[in-house]
Design brief:
Mean pLDDT: 92
Largest sheet: 3 strands, parallel
Number of helices: 5
CATH architecture of the domain at 12-66 and 101-124: Alpha-Beta Complex
Shape: globular
Structural class: alpha/beta
Number of strands: 5
Strand order of the largest sheet: 1-2-5
CATH topology of the domain at 12-66 and 101-124: Ribosomal Protein L13p, Chain: A
């Protein structure tokens, strides 16, 4: 007997739409990361990107549990002296709600070329409008 593994030519990609309205950020991010990696497929192998495309809508209506709404901060550093910045969650959700979901999902993907390839299949929008209606064939999760 031999084990059959999937090749890059055999990968079939689907499109999923996920509505983030009233969903918890971390729980949504884990579901999205699984789809992007292809872990929801039978023939999953960690060395191939066989994940599907994910369109997340209503990113501005995402929820956090506990006191995270007032305590959570997003930190960044430009690399220059004095280039450290912290943005509180409340300000980030007002200005760029799509970045919050992208940041959470990116942290759950591999930190290598494969992960950078996977994150490109994630499309996040602050409201219900998105330009990918033609790609979808009734696949809504």
């Amino acid at each position: 007997m031999s084990t059959s593994s999937v090749s890059a030519k055999q990968i079939i990609r689907k499109w999923y739409v996920i509505d983030a309205k009233e969903k918890i950020l971390g729980r949504l991010a884990t579901d999205v990361a699984k789809i992007l990696m292809g872990k929801n497929k039978i023939q999953y192998v960690p060395y191939l990107d066989q994940g599907d495309y994910v369109v997340v809508t209503n990113a501005s209506k995402i929820k956090l549990t506990g006191k995270k709404v007032s305590q959570k901060k997003y930190a960044s550093h430009s690399g220059y002296p004095g280039g450290y910045k912290e943005v509180p969650f409340k300000k980030a959700i007002r200005e760029k709600p799509s970045k919050i979901i992208e940041h959470a999902v990116k942290g759950m993907l591999p930190k290598n070329k494969l992960g950078r390839q996977m994150i490109k299949k994630l499309k996040v929008f602050a409201d219900m409008n998105h330009p990918y209606e033609s790609k979808l064939k009734g696949e809504v999760k």
